Amino acid sequence: MTVEGERRVIDRHLWPVVTQRHASVPVLVLNGPRTVGKSTLLAACAKAHDVLVTDLDDLPTRRSVSDDPSYFAASPSRPVCIDEYQYVPPLLDAIKAELNQDTRPGRYVLTGSTRYDSLPRVSQSLAGRAHVMTLWPLSQGELTGRKETFLDMLLSDARDLMSHEPSTTSREAYEEAVLAGGFPMPRLLKEAADKRRWFYDYVNTVIDRDALEIRRVRQRRVLPLVLRHLAARTASIMQATDIARRVELDARLVADYVTLLESVFLVHRIDAFGRTLSARVGKAPKLHMVDTGLAGQLLGVTPHKLASRDPSTLTEFGHLVETFAVNELVKQSGWAEAHVDLSHFRTKDQHEVDLVVESDDGRIAGIEVKAKGSVTDKDFRGLKLLRDRLGTSFVAGVVVNLGTRSYRYDERLYVVPLDRLWMPAP
């Protein structure tokens, strides 16, 4: 599967997984942010089966399907391919009725820019019959033509991540990658002003065409403001009360707005690690912006500001680097050989691990991200705690940083450059 980006064709690593899952389930739902390539994947699927796509983003088509959803759900096409399905919720009831008669795999492929589980009617209609996958913005491996295997290597034998050769990726190159993000369209734009305008228009489009379709918001202007506050807190524990105080709204309403922004893929959450290690382990999720290019634009972080070494900008960049690394691994989890759950770990006395990776066979690894070129003993506190508490089920802990060297720090604990997330060790 391909999408356009940087004036060349980019293979999406999720495409083989999509084709395999489509062949094994009655309904495949592919959701994700706008403009990341869902429609392109759907068109490729339709072409492979010589069928047409019903695009509900097109208003006349949407009206036609709304008038008679059962007619479209009963189409003899195999599969029935529907883009932006969330615009006609009764269509899901019609699909359910069809599946009551015929549950053969490969009947429907649906794409949407709203989270599947954010629409109650969807979960009620197709519970147990739909397999949901998420297509995220482009990964660094997709941009560089490599299929990333970091998660599989981390869980199988983290020593394979080590290399005698130093990384050649400079800090400036990392800054460029983080601030570019993974949305295909703005990567085509050369002028900074054009990029800013694209992201501004993107936020408004998602809010007006997706968020307000889910829930009518009395104060629409507040949503972009809440989003900017979330960008300033990316890679942080969700604190609705702090944002509520700054925007002068009730904390419960702000929490509801955050959920709404999550539903349309502007932010996403990483839940707390589920094992009960002690009563002092935090349970709140961490929130991340869906893309660091978007977050950087909302914060006004630029290469010029980073070059000035302004402390506040460097702090913001540190959060962006963590979100960048977490997002890369979230993307990679979609095609990793091992099925993994991703979470974060944090104790009330500030021992933390940015990402905990748990495979379905019980293997656990931890990843801590640092936006600096060297590592200290303090950076391993959370990983050591997990290792010592979990015993043999903890297979590896890695501190990812902007330095050039990879090495073994301690038993099952390692240091690797950030680019190892997408580049194999030489």
TrEMBL record:
SUPFAM superfamilies: P-loop containing nucleoside triphosphate hydrolases (SSF52540)
Pfam family, one: AAA_14
Domain DUF4143: 209-371
AAA domain residues: 26-143
Keywords attached to this entry: ATP-binding, Nucleotide-binding
One term of GO molecular function: ATP binding
Keyword ATP-binding recorded: yes
Keyword Iron-sulfur belongs to the record: no
Domain of life: Bacteria
InterPro entries: AAA_14, DUF4143, P-loop_NTPase
Protein name, entry field: ATP-binding protein
